[in-house]
Amino acid sequence: MKIETRYGSMNVLDTEGDIVSRFLVRYGEWSEFETKFVAANLPAAARVADIGAFLGSFGIGLSQQVSLASVCFLEANPKIVPMLRENVAANCRAPSELIEALICPNELEIRGARRFGANEGSLSFDPNGKAEIADDALLPDRRLTLTELLRDHGPFDCLKLDIEGMELSVLREGKDELSKGDLSIWVECNETQGSLDVAEFFLECGLKLHYFAYPSFNPNNFRGEPDAIFPMAYEAGLFASRTVPTLPEYLLREGCLLEEITEREALRRALWHTPRWCPPEIVEERPENMLAVAIRYLSGQNYDHFLLESAEPGDMAAPRQIATLLSLNQSLSATELRLRETYAERDQLRLTIAENEIRMKTHESQQQQLVDEVSAKTEAIDRLSAECEADRAKHSKLTEWLEAIADDRLTLLHSERRLREQMEERVAHLTISQTLSEERAARLEKELSIIHGSRSWRLRARLLQPLARFPRIRTALRLAVRDPRALMRRLLRR
To answer: Which end of the chain is less packed: N or C, by CB atoms within 10 Å?
Structure first.
């Protein structure tokens, strides 16, 4: 749903279970003292990365309190990202970028999400988290390391990390990049061993570390609501930088705490002295009154029976009530321990079931993949078989064609051989004929030479020489020699 807040018109979750949305609906703001403290310790035109932005109140609030060069919002919860995108577009006063991704080391194995009840702001992907498994939570599609964020989207002057227990692993992965430049880091600090480990990490990096705690309830809230949802409840964070942060006077008046942390034990002690919550029955305006009521409350006294006639005189300590209370407290602690163990076993069983389901889905996917591969290979074999049959048919036709060509070639060779033999015989015959003709010509030439040398030839020559002047007589004589009858016919015609 959409409501009016200190930051403008904002989309929030329509549920009492989500603490941030509940504060925004009732007070119109969330952790106002936090943004004021961080804003007071930023350089001019700072570049800020809001990691674990949720609905965007931190980054948007900073952009409205100081002039920023840019704000990079990063959120891993797919359910929240659409609302965050609208909130940033409508209310952020600095150039902004929104990244939908889970920031974590590359080696992190995501086994699902965890959440405390319906508190969507507590959603965590930490595999070692203590919250209940959130079966309805959506998993992020993209992962990003801190090194990749700083390298590809930085540089930044301030990092804010609120990623529900994964802060230390993320910081360790990006340690080399964190050592570059003058970078301030603001990290949520809860009463956990993890917060103590984060403090040690910052100290090992040589950074100045300060613990800042502030009331979750702002008396001067946007809606002017006078009553606190959680009386005396404080939120806290660790501010690591190369300089010493300042605590504005107005935050000091509101009950905010700032303490330098030089060792692990110092943070443990600071957390011990920080009020986290108290029963509404002992909340009083003046500290002295609250102390008195708290002592009576712890000693088992009840105002409904205090100094009444039915009460026994001098019954101040109520030892039986205290003993009963301590006994009940011990029983409650034991029950809570067993309940936590039962929850842990239940969560482990859920996790085991989820892992088995994932493995089953993986096996089914692999089995289906194998079936698909076998089907594909069967189809490929069928195609190859069909191609082989086609090639075999082509080969058979080609073989028949080659055999026919071979037969034709053989026939041609036989014909060529016969022709060659006939040609050789003809040539031999012609050679013999030529030889005979040459011999006959030689013989005739010899005979002609004999004739030309004979006496009759010489006499003929002498007779023919005078007739040369009379061609007709010569022709007649030749005709008489060759065909006498023809000569007689010619003479008779004349």
So the answer is: C
